[in-house]
Amino acid sequence: MQDQNTQKQVYHPLESVEDVEQFYMAIRREKLTQKLAPERPYCYWTIETYDKSNGIRGGGGLGVLAADMRRVAEQLQVPFVLVTPFYPWESHQKMENLEQIDYHVEQHYQDYGFNFVDSVNIKTSTGAVALDVVEKRLGSSRFLCITEPNFGELYSGESGSDHRLYQEVALGFGGYKALKLVGCRPGIIQLNEVATFFAAVARLDELVSCGMDFYEAVVYTRKHTLYTNHTLVQAAEATFHYDQFERYVFPNIKSVAVKRWLSDKFTDGMIRLSTPTVEIAELRSGVSKLHARVANYRDINGDKVKFKAVTNGIHLRSWTLPEIMSYYHDHEILDKFDLPAVRNLSEKIEQISAEDIRHLKGLGRAKLNEVLEHRSDQYGNPIQIPADALLFDFKRRFVDYKRPWLPFTEPDRLAQILAYNNAHYILAGRVHMGDATMFKKLMDLLKLIDSDPILRERVHYLPDYDEELGYALSLGANASINTPIVGLEACGTSWMKDIANMGLLISTHDGGVADCSADNYLTIDGKNERQEVAELYRQMEVAAKAWRNDFDLEYWIHKELTAYLDVISGTRMMRDYLNFLF
After folding, report:
1. What CATH number is associated with residue 516?
2. Which of 11, 158, 362, 391 is deepest in the core (most CB within 10 A)?
3. How many domains does one find in the chain?
4. Nearest alpha carbon to residue 384 among 458, 474, 481, 475
5. What's CA 383's distance to the chain center, in Å?
């Protein structure tokens, strides 16, 4: 560890703390010492984590955010526990005759360096269920997971089903017991979406059962609980029946007062978990500025709930080409904590030349092709993207509001753009199990591509989308396409990885992209979808031209980096959470 004098030579001022030294020292020695410590850590509950290197494969951005929170905490030496399930099964996809086939792979926590701690029990109306507690320590952070052979895979069972409720109850009550098992008391509980609500109930129940007055326990729990919301509309959530709670939830609650409090949250025998979650968490955050403004959530009285904007960020060192990260540090664009330079940032970014950009993206293209060597397209064939070819990509969850089909609205126009610009298009993403509508749209899209000789040659669908492929595409693609319906994307983080890796962003003005003005990237705008499609094609042409023209390329890369480096920094995200919490 560096001494204090050495540290003073390398830290620089920050916007909301006097300087980085004070911020970092606060985490380790000063303001947070009595609130965060190894035995009183920052406890982050999540039903989903996307960290395949540690054996846990998520479904999308919710899990990616959880993994990046832990990575940033480890980098900054924040005492941090990620409480999450270790799923014994995970789903995969492969293509056969242009049909996507789902299959499942068994996972063993021992294969990823997790150690068995002990077992804890949760209760149902029919008896106790034993959960194994396993952990893996990484610096100041650790994974603390609950698992059992019949736990299933991520999001198994229908939304609102008994099995889904069982998973959430196991994570909340079982995870809280696991935390006590390893000698930790939460300094703060962060609930990553409402599926983690029962962790706060477990804490409330413990306080009351140990003799604290119920109302004092509610106040204490509220002040130490942060609820982070990722969805815009409360009505989109699953609902549960009272009889489901009688079978899975209430058997785990000792206090009559807590049971009564929770029972009062039901309306006509039904409950949405966000209703009690916004009541038990005094601190509530949305994942972008736009999201915090427009999220439509209401408490038990029907009053709209206010959210603090803490825009998602990414762990830059995990998602950025190492040579690009070295470039940012060598040119003092990022400091040692991966925060943008406070002084003269735009001037430093303007020194990035088109030659630098093309060289670094060339390294990224080579890395992408290494990954593509063991991937197959919709025809079961490996692909390689030529070094001199332009590459567009779409790499996001296949859900209706993200509109992955939008660039294919006029297939002849898309084919013309690709052929004229010697361009390829990679389509990658996952359809959630059970989403029959999106599965059919994907199959129809693949048939459309197959029917056109140019699209068949230049458009590649890559099934079994995961972290490795998302990372590789961020490194090797020239321009990324992001087409959510405006008003429906909470934040998104795939676009952040593209900007970090000096790619051009073509996007609607939604989610975290809307944290900055729309003139900082290639904006898709329009009063209706037809106008948006026309603007999308125009911006694809602009992107292609920019990669042929030094001035245009520098102009757009400089604009993106100057506007968004602070937004996408995971260190900035952690700083904002700590400022909000403490």
Report:
1. 3.40.50.2000
2. 391
3. 2
4. 458
5. 28
Residue type, 502: M
pLDDT for 239-292, tens place per residue? 999 999 999 999 999 999 999 999 999 999 999 999 999 999 999 999 999 999
Bridge partners for 103 per DSSP: 92
Same domain for 232 and 379, yes or no, is no
* Distance linking the first and last C-alpha atoms of the chain: 25
Say how many C-beta atoms besides its own lie within 10 A of residue 308's C-beta: 14
pLDDT tens digits along 496-529: 999 999 999 999 999 999 999 999 999 999 999 9
Looking up tokens 């966000």 gives: 274
**Domain match, 296 and 399 both:** no
The DSSP-derived string for 205-250 is HHHHHTT--HHHHHHHHHHTEEEEE--SBGGGS-EEEHHHHHHHTG
Domain of residue 144, residue span = 4-23+40-310
Same domain flag for 298 and 426 = no
Residues whose CB falls within 8 Å of the CB of residue 580, separated by 6 or more in sequence, listed in order: 226, 283, 285, 308, 310
Nearest to 50 by CA among 495, 580, 493: 493
Quote the tokens at residue 336: 């040692």
Q: What is the pTM of this model?
A: 0.93
Whether residue 396 contacts residue 429, with contact meaning beta carbons closer than 8 Å, is answered with yes
| Residue 414 and residue 271 in one domain | no
The secondary structure element, H or E, covering residue 91 is strand 89-96
User: 283-286 and 270-272: which strand pairing?
Assistant: unpaired
Phi and psi, residue 286, nearest 5°: -100, 165
297 and 384, same domain (yes or no): no
Last residue of a domain, one of 259, 278, 310: 310
